[in-house]
Amino acid sequence: MQLDIDIEDWPAGEWPDLAERAAEAVAAVAPVLANPRLVVSVLFTSDEEVHALNREWRGRDKPTNVLSFPMLERIDLVHLSLDGPPEMLGDIALAHATCAREAEAKDLPLEHHAAHLIVHGLFHLAGHDHEISEADADAMEALEVKALALMGIANPYTAIDAA
């Protein structure tokens, strides 16, 4: 998977490296995402930008931590050959102030929370959806926990449950 990373309104940091490591971890857990033809746009941006995207594309007039915009159906992703031109999997946008506020509330480094949200967004692009059912939410959560563990990041759901 190739990443097209754009950073606006985030503090200086190793955000491109973090996104690349998150993508590698997700591909290790979900091999369908290891296809070299896949391209994902990752935007590190402001709450205002994510709010506008959320209002325009999801009809929700509020900021959120991460948005995912898939461009491939799950069936097409699963059957995508390894040969051919680049194929856009989708876009992910992360809102800095919301991510920072959530990380602070959970007593987590911003880098760990941002990694979790990138992983979460990539699984959404791959067709996983935690809003369908509790079983789907559990399955997606398990994949996220495995990917984050590969990055050396603790289970964020355990931290939530313990709070």
From TrEMBL:
Requisite cofactors: Zn(2+)
Gene3D superfamilies xrefs: Metalloproteases ('zincins'), catalytic domain
UniProtKB keywords: Cytoplasm, Endonuclease, Hydrolase, Metal-binding, Nuclease, Ribosome biogenesis, rRNA processing, Zinc
Source taxon at top rank: Bacteria
Cellular location(s): Cytoplasm
GO BP terms, alphabetized: rRNA processing
Keyword Zinc: yes
HAMAP family membership: Endoribonucl_YbeY
Family: Belongs to the endoribonuclease YbeY family.
Known function: Single strand-specific metallo-endoribonuclease involved in late-stage 70S ribosome quality control and in maturation of the 3' terminus of the 16S rRNA.
Protein name per the record: Endoribonuclease YbeY
Organism name: Aurantiacibacter luteus
Lineage, opening ranks: Bacteria, Pseudomonadati, Pseudomonadota, Alphaproteobacteria, Sphingomonadales
Gene name of the encoded protein: ybeY
